[in-house]
Amino acid sequence: MIFPEHERILTAIDVGTNSIHMVVVRIQPSLPAFTIIAREKNTVRLGERCQNTGQLTEAAMERAIAALKRCVEISKSLNSEQIIAVATSAVREAPNGRDFLQRVETEVGLWVNLISGVEEARRIYLGVLSGLEFNSQPHTVIDIGGGSTELILGDGHDPRSLSSTKIGAVRLTNEYVSTDPISSSEFQALQAYIRGMLERPIADLQAHLRPGEKPRLVGTSGTIETLAVLHARESLGIVPAPLHGYTFRLVDLQEMVTRFRRLNYADRSQLPGMNDRRAEIILAGALILQEAMTLLGVESITICERSLREGVIVDWMLTHGLIEDRLRYQSSVRQRSVIKIAQKYRVNTHHSERVAELALNLFDQTQGVMHQWGTEERELLWAAAMLHNCGHFISHDAHHKHSYYLIRNGELLGYTETEIETIANLARYHRKSGPKKKHDNYRNLTSKPHRRMVDQLSSLLRLAVALDRRQIGAVQQITCELRLDLREFRLHIQPSQPGDECTLELWSLNNKKACFEEQFGVKLVPLLEAAIAGMSHRS
Prior knowledge:
Nucleotidyltransferase, domain 5; Hypothetical protein af1432; 5-stranded mixed β-sheet
């Protein structure tokens, strides 16, 4: 298959709780748009975890690895230039989830990014936006997966509300359904649990509605699509192709739920449009949707065939500068998310911005000479610099440790779990002791490159923090000079004010330089220069 040079082929893989989905797309940057040229779906039930330990089972991991190998082969055969793979709730929650991802990397040669629930919701939103025109009207998006349910409120611009709740068709079937057909007591317990879990996120979503707004409900993914297929077969006698845009009502869904609870597994399997694996979990999935629609107060739902995997494609296009139209707002999602967290925890942003500027200045002047980190790592250093002091929100004492916790749990958008872990660790080590193998947070960085990144870049952040010790912008410019013959790293410092000897900054540098010297094998020599009148603060 040959395409014009300007067209690019890309693969997205979603490693879910129930299934592994893949799409291969042809991107036309000039539009910008993409066309799906191949799909692959494998029901692997990765979420069938050990009941005692919560671990992913060996059988489930082997099914997933076999499916991923097939996906990689298909992707290669279509000349895809890159595979972007993400994993969601099953891998997120399993104690051996990260071990599984390492196995995938070793056995398949595929790096899978672990993403948080809210990041999953954000990318689902991007996927839906790529296939549905919102016309600036509010829409609620619901995605019912195997392990979680995502709810999003948006109008085509920034998402107003993003949530991920630990209720999914596989999870609830495993935990609440042991009878076949389901007993009345199990059904009532399941219904009550779903309602209880959905009340809070739906109330939060509705709090973002403006007076008089009645959002349209859009549904995505396997459970909702299966319900639409069943409804279409019964009401129309055929299944529309595509299913995109198909609508059915809450009253029709309620009838389906009533029927499912009366049928056993064998009977559900025989329903036209129902496959065997879906028949096992369809009741729990349908009940999640029924309760969500009831709490939302909507009478119908419309199908969108685009979801997380398409959102992964859109996110890649955004980060690579291929989209500048109606989705332009998303291109700065990382920066805006960091600033939002900084404001939430009342960070002194003037100080943080100076520290970030100094840290990036050190990074840029030493790049290619003392380290080989690139643009992506530079971005993580910026985020860590902006948030390094957020732990003060909890307490001054051990605030670097509090910063780690707040960043780790602060729902940063636009980042993978590994990236968030890296940012949190960088912030954690801006003061006190350097990274140590015995530290739990440091051990959470499972790959050597990420640990090395934290080792080296946290030492740069320490110097940047020292250079703004008084938090008054005392340092106007820094110039780095590496003297390999003397094993010296000379840091030429120009103060902002004539006559300022920057005594506290120099003291702090000497106090914080040990990690830097250890990492790069040089002696740090700070040299105070004369202030230059009229120079800008930006070097």
